[in-house]
Each structure stands twice: as structure tokens, then as C-alpha cells.
Amino acid sequence: MLLIGLTGSIATGKSTVSALLSQPPYSLPIIDADLLARQVVEPGTRAYKQILAHFAATTPDLLLPADNNPETLSTGPQDPNGSSQAPNSSSQAPPSRSRPLNRPALGCRVFGRTPSRQRDRAVLNSIVHPAVRRAMALAVLKAYLSGHWAVVLDVPLLFESGLDIFCGLVMVAGVREPRIQMQRLRARDPHLSEREAGERVQSQGGVEGKVGRVAERGRGWGAVVWNDGGRAELAEGVARVMDGVEAGSPRWWGWVLLGAPWLAVGVGAWCMFWGWWARRRWESKEREREEEGGRGMAKL
What we know:
By secondary structure, the protein is α/β, with parallel strands linked by helices. The protein is 54% helix and 9% strand. The termini are far apart. Residues 70-94 have low confidence and may be disordered.
């Protein structure tokens, strides 16, 4: 089974590409990291409790108000003997463990370039990312056992999280003009100021870096779908990429791998090696560019 890693920066059209791939003629299963990230932090989960333990004391609006969560209104707090009491005052809030996270408030807390926000973002990622990886691995296994010839891993931070090495193909949705990206983001999320929108873009990395990483993977292992135009133009770009994908990894190949698990393991190991090698080459070139830039500044 082919793992197609789909990534891009915020507001570059990744979700649209994902929607196109989920529909005919492709009809591929989509494993959406953003959706899984919401599910693994639902009230009562381990990640939810860890986020409360770290952020609740310093983020007063970390949880949504009780009015926004009808489930919390069904029962009142418990008395010391364990029986439920009906709430007799609007000031009595339901238990925090039943109130969903206020995602915009948490985002404002962790997005930014200051050292404190970077530390908070690292803590949040250390809580959420492992839980998402476990859920993602289970979803991939289910897709493989269902006989799908390919599955899409829709992950905004595919390269940053190291998941690219598991993918036989990485597809990047990008825009050439940063101005277009900012306009789309603020149109989608009008509550964001220009500074906040810029911080969101920076948090997911620039398009140029992702395009460079894909180029390092080589033809057949990486592709860029540009989204500076409309949906029809984007669909044409996706079709061109998928025509090449199906030529190199036809649908019947998925059934062969399903019937020969040992072969599937071997193919997966080869894909991981190639992805790791491409990542190593890109990182080496990046270090060389940084060193050259440092020498140039020293001469000045």
C-alpha cells in the first residue's frame, strides 16, 4: 500500500487537495492529522488531562464556557456522598474535565516567535503528537487490511514531525505568492490580526522549504501542486500528479502487498530508507548554505 504524504503551509490549499483525493476517480482514504489532533484531546482523554495540567493555571480561558457545551448542563456537581445535585446557581460551573478545549485561546498561547511561546508550543506538541501518531498508525493498519492501494496522510507538519520518511510519495500544496496565502488565511479566519496571521504562517514553515525538501526526494517520490489559481486549475494539477502515481504504483500492486505481508514490509523499509536519505541530503545542504551565509556576513 502506498502512503501519500500530503502537506503544505496554512491556507495554501492542502484541505482542498485532500478533498479532491477523497472523491472519485481517486476515492482514497484520508487520515487527517488535524482531525485526529482534535479527537485525541477530547474531554477525558489522556492528552486532554495533560494539557489541563500544564496550561490551565496560566490560561484562564483554556476551556470553552459551559454554555457552549450542552453535555455539561445535564448534571450538576456531586456532593461529598457522590450523589448528583441540580445546579441552583448560574455561577456553578460544571467539572472542567467535561468542557472542551478553547482551541483559539490555546492557539494564541502557543503561536508566536517569542521564547516563551516556542517553549509552550514544544510542550503542546510533545503531548499531542505522540497521541496523533498512535491514532494514525492504527488508521494506516486498518486501510492496509481493507485492501486499499493507497492512503493519504494529511499532515501540516509532515517534514517537521519526521513522518515524511514513511511516505512513498510526498505531495506539497503551495502558493508562489505569500500575499495570496495571507489573504486566504485572513478571509478564512477573520478574527486573526495581520500579526497573528503571520505567526500562524511562520509556525507551519514557509512553502519554499517544503518545496525544497520535495525536490530533494526526486522524481516519483515528491510532487508540488501549485494553488495560485482556482479550484479547477488545482484539480488539473492533482490529476497530473496522480496519473504519474498510478503509473508507478498501480492499484493491483496494493492487492499483491496485501497477500504478501513480507513483501509489504520490504517495500516499506525501502521507502523509509529513501525518505531518510533524502532528508539527510537536504539537511546537509541546508547546513552548507547556513555556513556560507555566516562566512559572507563575517566578511562584511
